[in-house]
């Protein structure tokens, strides 16, 4: 149980989980490039001891492997799982009261504790004194990538009605006045938005505190989707094995355990351009107006260490966050949505764009013909629940005789495609909300959704080789198989939707003229079919981040009947669109410059990366 980030790092180093980098490293692109190279190799946590332009050390890749994360939380993990289970299923406590005594004690001991004296260890610094880390060449400036952003409910002040979230903070660049202003980016469905709306309605500024560092449990608590009634501050204490210690200075909440604290106010209606920022979909999120935070004070404790991560195309370190969250809350979705057995936000597709789910079919067990019924009810519940509501594509089925696992992605998709009735089982939602960071739609937060709900007897054998009707099509090259039942064609570059509509209509007619293609339910049109078919990850990423169901799904022999869309084969146009954000591409000069850290005799030379 760690009382500080430094204590954790000492423990990691003693046990072979951390390496110190003694060479001077530039926070502009170099630190991120080193991190990504080590993360990809499954390497250790990295302590940068000589960061150019600052006296502060910096650490990354803390949560880079599940093994390391479980090591960090090894003393408290079981107790936290029990508390989460009881919160998700209170009846379990009544059924086994004696086995849950410790759970209640653990939760009680985790309640945050207010210190009446100010945290004397903190001293004032400026934003310009911090490690100003920029991860990608086109980023708008330096960002805090592991912040714990704290706000309180203006109607019910106090720590037990607070919100702690991980919303990115832009420290420099754009129009921000250095040391006086920072940008605060949060997406829809976020707790801080509710607090800001209430403050704005009162005509008051919202006080915000940004904690950086402290025990690793505090960082994880900022990204946890918690059951009703369990605050992030209590969870932070529970996972840390010690109560969250806080004080108030100038009316701002201060984490006494944080390495750094930035305090400030968001005033009603005040925004500035924030971004671009290399984000978890593997593209830049572009420049948009977001709340402006006027800096009050910046604090650092002696020997403070700045934690950071790099966000980019999955998998990245935030993938490990997802694994930890799933371990702790895996059964919570079952309690929230009756009939659901699994929901898997597919990391390779950027998490939000694509969901795989397993539900139940209990409505009409007496019917001979099996078809989706309860699954559609469950699909609506999934797409109306929290962050899951930002998904664009949902593939859902129900188990019958064979066990299914949504994490075995190719097998799960094949199971659905074998049973999919393309004239019955595709359901659209148009003009609705999608992820703020997803630029495949018609505007920020705006796009569409589609549900593929398949259930019943197997309808087809899926092709494993490129079908003849997809070969030698005019205007399309290099047909390839991605997996059984899904083929890809390489087309000309996308120009606009009017042209695309004509192109896809022509393609559909050409395929239809060549005869039935029942063994290949889905056909992808891509800019580069070799890349798309190279790995399953490439397919999942490129297809579901580059398409908007309502605008980019077409069909062979498609038609509407009573407003329901049907087809014989689905065509998804996954070409890059001009309005979409550019992908993240590392700077080759930076990639070359960091080689010095990996040569024999250098800090990371022994890793053989």
Question: What does this 3D model show about the protein?
Answer:
The protein is of the alpha+beta class. It contains 18 helices and 30 strands. α4 (77-88) crosses α6 (101-109). The radius of gyration is 25 Å and the shape is globular. It starts with a helix and ends in a 16-residue tail after the last helix.
TL;DR of this structure?
By secondary structure, this protein is α+β, with helices and mostly antiparallel strands.
Topology:
Blueprint: H1 5-14, E1 18-21, H2 30-40, E2 45-48, E3 57-60, H3 66-72, H4 77-88, H5 91-95, H6 101-109, E4 113-114, E5 123-125, E6 143-144, E7 147-152, E8 162-165, E9 169-170, E10 181-184, H7 191-202, E11 206-212, H8 216-221, H9 232-240, E12 245-249, E13 252-255, E14 260-274, E15 277-278, E16 284-285, E17 288-300, E18 305-308, H10 317-329, H11 332-336, E19 342-345, E20 354-359, H12 374-382, E21 393-398, H13 409-419, E22 426-433, E23 446-453, E24 477-483, E25 486-490, H14 497-513, E26 522-526, H15 529-534, H16 536-545, H17 549-552, E27 553-556, E28 559-561, E29 564-566, E30 569-573, H18 588-593
Parallel strand pairs: 1-2, 3-18, 4-12, 20-21, 21-23, 25-26, 26-30
Antiparallel strand pairs: 2-3, 5-17, 6-9, 7-8, 7-11, 9-10, 10-17, 11-14, 12-13, 14-17, 15-16, 19-20, 22-23, 24-25, 27-30, 28-29
Helix pairs in contact: 4-6
What's the gyration radius in Å?
Answer: 25 Å
User: Which ranges are low-confidence, i.e. pLDDT below 50, for 5 or more consecutive residues?
Assistant: 88-105
Query: What percent of residues are in strands?
Result: 15-25%
Number of strands: 30
The biggest beta sheet is recorded as: 9 strands, antiparallel
Structural class: alpha+beta
Proportion in helices: 25-40%
Number of helices: 18
Nearest-integer average pLDDT: 90
Approximate shape:
globular
Oligomer: single chain
Q: Terminal Cα separation, in Å? A: 32 Å
């Amino acid at each position: 149980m760690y009382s500080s980030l430094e204590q954790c790092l000492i423990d990691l180093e003693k046990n072979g989980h951390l390496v110190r980098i003694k060479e001077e490293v530039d926070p502009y692109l170099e630190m991120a490039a080193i991190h990504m190279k080590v993360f990809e190799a499954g390497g250790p946590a990295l302590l940068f001891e000589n960061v150019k332009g600052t006296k502060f050390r910096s650490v990354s890749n803390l949560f880079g492997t599940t093994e390391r994360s479980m090591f960090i939380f090894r003393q408290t993990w079981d107790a936290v799982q029990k508390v989460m289970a009881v919160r998700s299923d209170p009846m379990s406590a009544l059924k086994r009261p004696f086995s849950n005594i410790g759970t209640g004690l653990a939760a009680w001991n985790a309640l945050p504790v207010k210190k009446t004296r100010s945290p004397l260890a903190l001293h004032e610094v400026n934003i310009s004194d911090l490690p100003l880390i920029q991860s990608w060449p086109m980023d708008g400036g330096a960002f805090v990538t592991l912040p714990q952003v704290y706000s309180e409910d203006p109607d019910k002040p106090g720590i037990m009605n607070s919100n702690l979230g991980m919303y990115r903070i832009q420290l420099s660049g754009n129009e921000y006045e250095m040391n006086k202003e920072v940008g605060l980016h949060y997406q829809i469905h976020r707790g801080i938005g509710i607090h800001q709306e209430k403050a704005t309605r009162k005509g008051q500024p919202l006080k915000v505190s940004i904690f950086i560092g402290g025990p690793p449990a505090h960082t994880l608590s900022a990204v946890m989707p918690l059951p009703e009634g369990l605050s992030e501050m209590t969870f932070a204490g529970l996972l840390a094995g010690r109560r969250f210690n806080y004080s108030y200075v100038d009316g701002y909440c201060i984490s006494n355990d944080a390495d750094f604290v930035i305090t400030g106010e968001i005033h009603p209606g005040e925004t500035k351009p924030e971004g671009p920022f290399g984000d978890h979909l593997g593209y830049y999120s572009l420049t948009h107006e977001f709340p402006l935070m006027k800096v009050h004070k910046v604090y650092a404790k002696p020997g403070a260490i700045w934690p950071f991560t790099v966000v980019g195309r999955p998998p990245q370190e935030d993938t490990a966050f997802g694994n930890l969250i799933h371990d702790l809350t895996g059964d919570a979705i079952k309690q929230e949505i009756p009939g659901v057995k699994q929901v898997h936000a597919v990391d390779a597709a950027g998490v939000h764009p694509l969901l795989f789910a397993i539900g139940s079919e209990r409505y009409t067990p007496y019917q001979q013909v099996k078809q989706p019924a309860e699954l559609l009810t469950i699909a609506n519940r999934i797409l109306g629940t929290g962050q899951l509501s930002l998904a664009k594509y949902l593939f859902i089925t129900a188990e019958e005789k064979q066990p299914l696992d949504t994490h075995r992605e190719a097998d799960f998709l094949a199971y659905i495609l074998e049973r999919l009735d393309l004239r019955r089982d595709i359901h659209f939602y148009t003009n609705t909300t999608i992820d703020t960071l997803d630029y495949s739609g018609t505007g920020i937060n705006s796009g569409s959704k589609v549900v593929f709900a398949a259930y019943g007897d197997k309808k087809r054998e899926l092709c494993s080789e490129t079908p003849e009707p997809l070969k030698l099509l005019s205007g399309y090259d290099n047909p390839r198989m991605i997996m059984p039942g899904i083929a890809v064609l390489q087309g000309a570059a996308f120009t606009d939707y009017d042209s695309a509509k004509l192109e896809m209509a022509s393609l559909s007619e050409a395929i239809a003229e060549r005869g039935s293609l029942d063994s290949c339910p889905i056909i992808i049109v891509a800019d580069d079919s070799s890349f798309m078919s190279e790995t399953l990850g490439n397919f999942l990423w490129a297809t579901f981040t580059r398409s908007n169901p309502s605008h980019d799904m077409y069909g062979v022999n498609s038609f509407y009947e009573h407003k329901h869309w049907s087809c014989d084969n689905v065509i998804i146009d996954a070409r890059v669109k001009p309005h979409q954000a550019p992908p993240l591409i590392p700077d080759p000069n930076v990639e070359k410059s960091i080689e010095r850290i990996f040569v024999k005799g250098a800090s990371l030379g022994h890793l053989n990366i």
